[in-house]
Design goal:
- The protein has 413 residues and is α/β, with parallel strands linked by helices.
- It has two domains: 152 residues, Alpha-Beta Complex (Aspartate Aminotransferase, domain 1); 232 residues, Aspartate Aminotransferase, domain 2.
- It has 16 helices and 13 strands.
- A seven-stranded mixed sheet has the order 2-8-7-6-5-3-4, sandwiched between helices.
- The chain is globular, with a radius of gyration of 21 Å.
- Bound molecules: pyridoxal-5'-phosphate (PLP).
- Pyridoxal-5'-phosphate binds next to helix 6.
Length: 413
């Protein structure tokens, strides 16, 4: 079955607007557009229930119910127990809080493995713990294509390793890391696996049990929702963590790892992500008895196939341009890469490539995307120039990709 791309685009105000739709938007890894279903929940909350939630008067009760629906929807989508979720303002802040929460249970000389492929959120927050005698070791990428090799992790991991912090997919390289192999290795050494799924979740539906990681995170403003960060912590890990909220909330789910408190309307709106996937499910498959995770998984099967096809059209064009170095896999086969495709141009600055594409209403960006260590490892002298990143998701069309490919050919030939 093929994804009905016209139906998908009808769900977004930005695509219904003729002027906005002129732009081919390929900066989705920076943040995706929001469909009607999410906006409806968001505005409804702001219009009718924007009061302190969980009180006894009607608007307050409704506000609490709407927020609970947001938590439950995310829990269902990632196949988790809702009580194990923290929903904070961003993944960076969630990781900062998580690192502080782990600190009291880590001892002088304990080791944490970080990569130089991750967004700085999953590196810097751990490296800061060196002030307390914690040693960080770096699992380094192949400097040619930016990929991680599990054999290098085997050389670093030891009985002193407490945490292995890595991303399921890089927001630049786009290769899906072998989460099962990484997690298995971490667990063999009694270390915990801390998995950043920010660049993964827009392209694949995560199942935290299946992934078998100990902490999982992603950012909902990249998965068609409001600007929030989701952090799931396995129940068995909680005793190792020192609560980070107010002392009287120490045992309270959603609050014990969230010192800022929940963002009410934004959380309520998250239920709209589930509504969106359900709308697509019903349109494509009809009614069902499947649970929400399984419905979303079926929808993502269509997304994956669609994205793979578009990715391969772009990769084919890039492979035929001699003065371009593609990062990650140069072909998208099942389970190997997301639609985040970056390259290093030779003989022309990244910013020049972007400028020329923008002239043709093709929205892309260049730079380091907060992954400066990777950019340096790849041998790029100026991180602000960095790479050209093209990131597509399921709502991009073949016509947009063709325009992009033609734009690239014009620049390089
Ligand atoms: C892979 C990855 N991890 C973490 C982050 C940080 O997420 P947030 O902006 O929610 O702090 C980003 C943001 O771009 C990212 O791409």
């Amino acid at each position: 079955m093929k994804l009905d791309i016209n139906f998908i685009r009808e769900q977004y105000a930005v695509f219904r607007d003729a002027d906005s739709a002129e732009w081919a938007f390929f900066e989705n890894a920076g943040g995706s557009y929001i469909p009607d279903q999410v906006l409806k929940r968001f505005f409804n909350f702001l219009e009718y229930t924007k009061v302190q939630p969980y009180g006894l008067f009607p608007s307050s009760k409704e506000a609490g119910t709407a927020m609970d629906a947001g938590y439950q929807c995310i829990a269902d989508l990632i196949n988790a127990d809702g009580d194990d979720l923290t929903i904070g303002p961003s993944t960076t802040l969630n990781l900062y809080v998580l690192a502080q929460a782990f600190r009291p249970s880590l001892k002088d000389g304990d080791e944490i493995i970080v990569t130089n492929q991750d967004h700085e959120a999953n590196i810097g927050n751990w490296r800061r713990l060196s002030e307390f005698g914690i040693v960080t070791k770096e699992w380094q990428v192949d400097p040619q294509n930016g990929e991680l090799n599990i054999d290098d992790l085997k050389l670093l991991i030891s009985d002193r390793t407490r945490l292995v912090c890595f991303n399921l997919c890089s927001n630049i390289v786009g290769t899906l890391n072998d989460v099962k192999a990484i997690t298995k290795l971490a667990h063999q050494f009694n270390a915990l696996a801390i998995a950043d799924g920010v660049a993964f979740a827009p392209h694949q539906i995560p199942d935290v049990n299946e992934l078998d990681v100990d902490v999982y995170l992603h950012s909902t403003y990249k998965t068609f929702g409001t600007h929030l960060g989701v952090m799931w912590i396995k129940q068995s890990v909680m005793p190792k963590l020192y609560p980070q909220g107010h002392y009287f909330n120490a045992d309270k789910p959603h609050y014990n790892m969230n010192p800022t408190g929940p963002l009410h309307a934004e959380i309520a709106a998250l239920a709209g992500i589930g509504d969106y996937y359900d709308t697509i499910y019903e349109h494509q498959y009809g009614s069902t008895k499947l649970n929400r995770h399984d419905r979303a998984a079926k929808v993502f099967e269509l997304f994956v196939n669609h994205e793979r096809r578009l990715s391969n059209l772009l990769l084919y064009t890039l492979k035929n341009i001699p003065n371009v170095r593609i990062l990650g896999q140069s072909e998208a086969t099942s389970g190997t890469r997301s639609g985040t495709i970056s390259f290093i141009p030779e003989g022309i600055k990244s910013s020049e490539v972007v400028k020329k594409l923008l002239e043709n209403q093709i929205a892309v960006r260049n730079g380091h995307f907060y992954v400066v260590r990777l950019i340096e490892a790849l041998g790029i002298k100026d991180p602000d120039e960095g790479v050209v990143r093209i990131s597509l998701v399921h709502y991009n069309t073949e016509a947009e990709i063709n325009r992009l490919c033609q734009g690239l050919k014009n620049i390089f030939t």
